[in-house]
Amino acid sequence: MAEMSAAASAFAERAKEGRVELQRCDECGAFAWPPRDICARCWSDQLTWTPIAPRGVLLAATALHVAHDEFFKSRMPWRIGTIRLESGPIAYAHLSDNLSEGDAVRIAACADWKGRGVLVALAAAAVAVEDDPKLRELCLHE
Amino acid sequence: MARRPTTSRMSYDGVVAVAPVTIPYERFSTKAAHWWIGKALKALSLRTGFEPAEFDGFCVSSFSLLPDTAVGLTQHFGLSPRWLDHIPMGGASGVVALRRAARAVQAGDAEVVACVAGDANHVDLFRTMLASFSRFSQDAAYPYGSGGPNGSFALMTRAYMKKYGATREDFGKICVAQRDNALQFPHALMKTPLTLNDYLSARVVAEPIHLFDCVMPCAGAEGFVVMREETARAMNLPYASILSTIERHNAFKDDDIQLRGGWAVDKDELWSMAGVAPGDVDFLETYDDYPVISMMQIEDLGFCRKGEAKDFVRSHTLAVAGSFPHNTSGGQLSVGQAGAAGGYLGLVEALRQLTGEALGARVVNAKVGVVSGFGMINFDRGLCSAATILAAGGSYG
Ligand SMILES: [Zn+2]
Fold it and tell me: Is residue A23 one of the residues assigned to a domain?
């Protein structure tokens, strides 16, 4: 199991089941990312895991050609991007290959081979993570 | 964002920085951070003539000290300071150390403060540090593959290029000029010339970041001493005066992608406190973990308007003998990034230039230098920004 905070672990448990949930502040309503203990807007500790509208915009994309991890090393180039989630926060996501900057994207979540919860961005029309061979390997493993 | 009124700030009159030292970097080393920091302390002692017991203030920055902090180092080095600080701000550490130490000396809380940054670099250290750099980074950046800041900076560089029209040639011009400077700097790890063609044809790391946009992690240490001006004069130590400083964390937190840093919040205060203008500056040392960050600093510090660093770079020559001397020792891109010492490199080089102690190319008649720092990609952006304006020998104005 990879090192992660307790809040990230709670995200990973949900992501593993395909649930795209972020913490939402009970007091001010703000969604939070990355997972945390205190709302960055009002400093409340009352954060509740809440399903988000699984949509966002791809602001910037890159293709990694160098990585430390064997999984990525053997699948270069690997695309990641910066997403503005419709629910508010900025997040990184693994990208399916057919996305361009400025695209509206659909957001999915899964647990990677190390048990880390990760966000994945797909073409808005895409049906499932399984449609993309690389993301399928990322998310569907024993 | 709330701005602090400039009228409330005291000057740094009567406090100076002396004795810039660099412990020559090594690409890999089996030595611990403690060795590198201790070597820098010894160099500071030799340079100033102060015995170890005479340093009553100590400030340290390092990523590879664990399980120690500054506290453990006092016993390791036999220090008994009455003022102790440990600054975990990466690339902003040097300027922040300077401004804190200066206030301590000014207030009489300490007389002679040794400021040191140093880091080890054994074979697997860089990788293990990346995995546990910060909680947000560990949870929400590290799982996305690049295993370090290359991915984050690639996305920032991509967005910056798209918004402002900067090109790889512009970044390359910065890198090539720094290499020219480094070829004259004895401690630079990069010893061979770099052409624009070399830069452009280098292998890709994370689009649009290529090999020569990235620093080389290494081991090393940097240091300087802060003391009262009258002490420096009595000891016959060449010194630099502190005209102004700024520091800011987590600025512009709602920006989609970081295209500017905290300097843009505080730059008016930086210049007004110093009583100088950008045109008075003889050289600039920016924090160059990637060249796009140097361009952001050129803009956000006020050397040109936002988005126009590309034009600024195109209209200037950036080597030491050029129209706008920048990163005069070669910067991290050519000297190497010795962990937290990378956050001291520009400041220590500026002190050398202003005290007539340049080891490499010398900025002729340098009177005023600007140093800025940038640190800590906690998740998707660098959180710490700082800058200082320094003057040679207290003679300015
Ligand atoms: Zn809240």
Answer: yes
